[in-house]
Amino acid sequence: MKIRTLIVDDEPLACERLRGFLAAEPSIEIVGECGNGTDAIATIRRETPDLVFLDMQMPGCNGLQVLAELSPDRRPAVIFATAHQEFAVDAFAVEAVDYLLKPFDRERLQQSLRRAEEHLARNRGGAKVPVAHQVASRSDRIAVKADGRLVFLQPEEILRLEAADNYVILHLATGRLMVRETMGALAARLGAERFVRINRSAIVQADQIREIQPAPYGDHTIVLRDGTRLPLSRSLRGQLSRFATSK
C-alpha cells in the first residue's frame, strides 16, 4: 500500500526538490501540493493523506497552526521540512514524526520516510502510543545542530562531553558529534541530576563513572565504563560526593 503524501511549502524551488526526491521512492504517492497554511488545512481535510511534509513558516498560518486546526485523531503523519530550527521542540510536542532542517539530502529524507513508515504501521496495527506518553518521552530529548543537521538525542545516549576550542564534542555509544555550543549551555540542558563536570574540559554522565583512582601528587583520575581515563579537577572533586552512594 502506497503512502499518500501531501507537500506543503510556499517556496517553489523547495517543493520541486522535495517532489523530485519523493518521485524516486516507490512507496510514495504524491496526492497534492499547497503553498500556504490555509490551503493545507482544506486539502488535508479533503484528501486525508497518510503523510504531510509541512513547512513551518508560510503565508496564512504556520505549520503548528495548521495542525492545531485538525482533529488530533484525524491528523496525518507529519514531517516538518523547514529552515527554522527554533521550532523543533514545539514540533515534537505535537507528535511530528521528524524534523527536517533545510537543506537536506536524499539520505536524510529516506531516514525520515522510514520513521514515517514505522509510525503508520504502528497506527494501522492499532498499537498507537498514547499522546501523553509520546509528549513526555520526546520532551526529554535535546536538539543539537551538527554538520548542518538537527540531531535529537536522549540524554542517556551521551556518554561524555569534551571541550574543543569553540566546539563541544559529544561522545556517544554510536560515535561522536561536534556541535557549536558552549559546555555550560549544554550542561544546563542536560541537567545536573545526570551529568557532572570533572574538569574544565570534560563533563561526564554520572552513570558512566566506574572508578575514581588516586593519581600522583594528590590528584585523582576518573575511569569510565568504556575504559576512558580522565583527570578529576581538585576544585570539582566535591561534586561527585552526591553520587558516592550509588557508585
Would you give an account of this structure?
The chain has about 250 residues and is an alpha/beta fold. The protein has 2 domains: about 5-140, Rossmann fold (3-Layer(aba) Sandwich); about 150-245, OB fold (Dihydrolipoamide Acetyltransferase, E2P) (Beta Barrel). About 30% of the residues lie in helices and about 30% in strands. It has 7 helices and 15 strands. It has helices at about 10-25, 35-45, 65-70, 90-95, 105-125, 130-140, 185-190; strands at about 5-10, 30-35, 50-55, 75-80, 100, 140-145, 150-155, 160-165, 165-170, 175-180, 195-200, 200-205, 210-215, 220-225, 230. The strands form 4 sheets. It has a 5-stranded parallel β-sheet with strand order 2-1-3-4-5, sandwiched between helices. A 5-stranded antiparallel β-sheet has the order 10-9-8-12-11, with helices on one face. The longest helix is centred in the middle third of the chain and has 19 residues, at about 105-125. The radius of gyration is 22 Å and the shape is elongated. Mean pLDDT is about 85; it is low at about 125-140.
